[in-house]
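Worked example 3 (structure in, sequence out).
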């Protein structure tokens, strides 16, 4: 009796193995088609990143974005492009393969799920970057308003009322952070000081102070070097004021993981590349530009 039914049991077992090891081609074709669609979306994301990179370059050339922030955006775009290229290439290989075994089908399904997730994540970051690059990320602070002539320290009276200068930037940062609560963010605040080319008088108190800052005793620095140090001192004062202002100001920045404060003196360099009629003693050159930028970690 056992010998009579044995072939039937064997046939049933083989059929069972066949059902679980082979994959219906209709499902495979559908998954590959969907993976091709995701690849197309990823390639569109890469094209959008190229457009955003050109916008970043333009803002940097026009001095509307800090070079540190610009470099971070550029690096983020470069990394994201590489991520897209790697994923698209891997998916293309899978699309071209013949899926027969269950293990092939599993790989295809996992690749599709992963690609969907990454494409959405990259799309969200592109929206974030587009929003960031379109923002006004610089506040112009006239040195003649903040500093007395030949000075780089802010008077207590001016410091007490400094909020009116910083509130536009602080308000924009608050709105941006609240708009993207699901992103862990890093914030960079940079102050860049500029000066005119006015001669700093020999024997003046300012010359003595600047030489002390430069740690010079007997040497005679040139006027360009002195004006650069003056612009450094003013940028340093402004970034210190902004730090104090933000500490004392209520803000909801729970998703900001890191805050970096930077300052830099540009000296007699023209602050606006679009202006060609700067004079030696030009108030438009005596400014501090305060930049802000936020990045997803």
């Amino acid at each position: 009796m056992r010998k009579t039914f044995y072939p039937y049991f064997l046939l049933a077992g083989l059929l069972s193995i066949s059902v679980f090891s082979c994959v219906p081609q209709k499902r495979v074709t559908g998954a590959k088609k969907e993976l091709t669609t995701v690849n197309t979306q990823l390639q569109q994301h890469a094209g959008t990143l190229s457009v955003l990179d050109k916008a970043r370059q333009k803002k940097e050339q026009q001095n509307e974005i800090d070079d540190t922030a610009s470099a971070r955006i550029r690096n983020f775009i470069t990394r994201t492009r590489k991520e897209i290229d790697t994923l698209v290439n891997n998916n293309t290989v899978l699309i071209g393969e013949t899926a027969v075994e269950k293990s092939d089908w599993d790989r295809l399904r996992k690749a599709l799920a992963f690609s969907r997730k990454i494409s959405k994540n990259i799309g969200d970051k592109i929206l974030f970057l587009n929003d960031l690059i379109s923002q006004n990320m610089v506040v112009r602070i006239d040195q003649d308003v903040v500093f007395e002539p030949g000075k780089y320290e802010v008077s207590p009276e001016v410091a007490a009322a400094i909020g009116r200068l910083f509130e536009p930037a602080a308000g924009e940062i608050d709105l941006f952070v609240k708009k993207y609560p699901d992103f862990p963010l890093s914030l960079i605040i940079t102050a860049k000081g500029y000066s005119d080319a006015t001669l700093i008088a020999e024997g003046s108190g300012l010359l003595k102070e600047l030489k002390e800052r430069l740690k010079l005793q007997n040497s005679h620095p040139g006027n360009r070097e002195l004006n650069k140090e003056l612009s450094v001192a003013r940028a340093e004062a402004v970034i210190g004021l902004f730090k104090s202002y933000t500490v004392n100001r209520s803000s909801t920045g729970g998703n900001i993981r890191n805050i970096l404060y930077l300052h830099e003196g540009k000296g007699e360099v023209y602050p606006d590349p679009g202006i060609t009629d700067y004079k030696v003693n030009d108030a438009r050159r005596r400014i501090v530009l305060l930049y802000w930028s936020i990045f997803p970690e």
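Notes: Residues 185 and 296 are 5 Å apart (CA to CA). The chain has nine helices and four strands.
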